[in-house]
Amino acid sequence: MKKAINVIGWIFVSLTMLTLTCTLLTTYLYVRQISYFNSYSTFQLCMALTMMIWAVGMFVDKRERSQNLLYSIFCTLIAVGTVFFMYIGVF
């Protein structure tokens, strides 16, 4: 279970980095054909999903390190903050 969550977490980190790169390229008009990346909403969604997966992964690993519970709470707060900004329309 821990290894599967870890692998999924790293896949989402890679996806988030790719999304950030595409968003920056589209924002600075180097690439115009990618319409999904015209605003930061795709990046915010990927960031929220990545933080939630890391929060679950650290919550599962909380027995190995006592700080993982605190890190899990911080990841959850970042994800909730990102979703809140998506909800109020900050792109």
From TrEMBL:
Q: Which UniProt keywords apply?
A: Membrane, Transmembrane, Transmembrane helix
Q: Output the lineage of the source organism.
A: Bacteria, Bacillati, Bacillota, Clostridia, Eubacteriales
Q: Where are the transmembrane segments?
A: 7-31, 37-57, 69-90
Q: Which organism is it from?
A: Clostridium pasteurianum BC1
Q: Report what the protein is called.
A: Uncharacterized protein
